[in-house]
Design brief:
The protein is of the alpha+beta class. The chain has helices at about 5-15, 20-30, 35-40, 105-120, 135-145, 160-180, 310-329; strands at about 60-70, 80-85, 95-100, 125, 150, 205-210, 215-220, 230, 270-280, 285-290, 300-305. The strands form 3 sheets. It has a 5-stranded mixed β-sheet with strand order 3-2-1-4-5, with helices on both faces. A 3-stranded antiparallel β-sheet has the order 6-7-8, with no helix packed on it. β2 (about 80-85) and β3 (about 95-100) form a beta hairpin. It is extended and about 90 Å long.
Length: about 325
């Protein structure tokens, strides 16, 4: 029996059949339908409680940081990104010109020279889980400054509505300004085809524990096991399993398992061997040939800088070796 929503199914069945406890049985049938649970999007109020961000008492005490990228290069240094910093006390904004290719060290220098030196040390920094902000270098910087990092939950970056809206507005202004100066055709070559229709939900998975009030840790299995296991509760919903032989006419053929693209790397990085420069969408980029721990040269792989685990550490070692080799020559 195929069916849509609960109300539409009730209406269809009411015109053709009747039996005692018909509505209760229909609800049970729909709720335990595995295909329906995976394909039907959840509507209405989301699970979880709103968590209020602590109100700052002084200027630049609590800030939000994010990136505006994908901009037309401009200026003498061909800046193609902005580090946008929002002060939650006065809602003032600073847009610091940068490059998308900047490392965690480059970002830290921009942050230090343009904010800390003029506005002081913030008490709380709210940001997404950008690899630059979660790197070992930035972790040490937080400790040194006595600053508390507040990262958004994985898969749910809506950390602070005020700051997110400000950043979106700034991005719109910057991009609009660039449109008046130069018209970029890069995006015309980057249009992707429509993705294959997939289920809205995956699973079922077992909840291991509640983290805080609005997140859960889930036991991911199979090819999902390498994904981050913590999700906000607004992205999960209960799974209803039907009792055995309750609906014998229902097809029991299991739906084929969903697949996700997972970066299949052989393990942690041992060292960077060399790099190459290449042009992608008209922009110069670097790729690094990486050797993995306990692996042979057969598993060496070219990776972008932001795809290298503990990239800052390995890049520092690689550049130091390069400098030493040049001195010997």
């Amino acid at each position: 029996m195929g069916h849509l929503s609960e109300d539409m199914t009730k209406e269809t069945v009411a015109s053709t059949a009747w039996r005692p406890q018909r509505e209760q049985l229909l609800i049970e049938y729909i709720n335990t339908c595995e295909r329906f649970q995976k394909a039907y999007r959840k509507h209405g109020n989301k699970y979880g409680l709103l968590q209020h961000t602590e109100e700052p008492k002084h200027q630049w005490e609590t800030i939000n940081m994010n990136w505006a990228t994908g901009l037309v290069p401009g200026g003498k240094q061909n800046f193609n990104a902005f580090l946008i910093i929002v002060d939650r006390f006065r809602e003032s904004v600073r847009s610091l010109p940068s490059h998308k290719e900047h490392t965690a060290m480059d970002t830290a220098l921009i942050f230090w020279n343009n904010l800390i030196s003029t506005c002081g040390v913030p008490k709380i920094i709210i940001s997404d889980r950008d690899p630059k902000f979660t790197s070992e270098l930035w972790t040490n910087l937080y400790d040194m400054l006595g600053t508390k990092p507040a990262f958004s939950t994985a898969y749910h970056p809506q950390t602070d509505g005020l700051a997110e809206n400000t950043i979106q507005t700034m991005e719109g202004i910057i991009r609009k300004f660039c449109e008046y100066v130069l018209v970029s055709t890069l995006n015309l070559n980057n249009l992707k085809g429509t993705k294959k229709i997939k289920h809205s939900f995956l699973g079922p998975f077992t909840i291991i524990k509640l983290i805080g009030e609005n997140s859960v840790e889930v036991k991911l299995t199979g090819e999902f096991s390498r994904k981050h296991p913590v999700f906000p509760v607004c992205l999960v919903k209960p799974y209803f399993q039907e009792e055995e032989d309750m609906f014998p006419s229902r097809k029991k053929n299991p739906t084929p398992p969903e697949t996700v693209e997972v970066e299949d790397t052989p393990g942690p990085v041992k060292k960077i061997l060399k790099f190459r420069k290449m042009r992608l969408n008209g922009k110069g980029q670097r790729q690094y040939l990486v050797r993995f721990k306990n692996q042979t040269a057969d598993t060496d792989r070219l990776l972008a800088e932001d795809a290298i685990l503990d990239g800052d550490l390995h890049l520092r070692r690689f550049r130091a070796c390069q400098a030493e080799s040049m001195l010997k020559k």
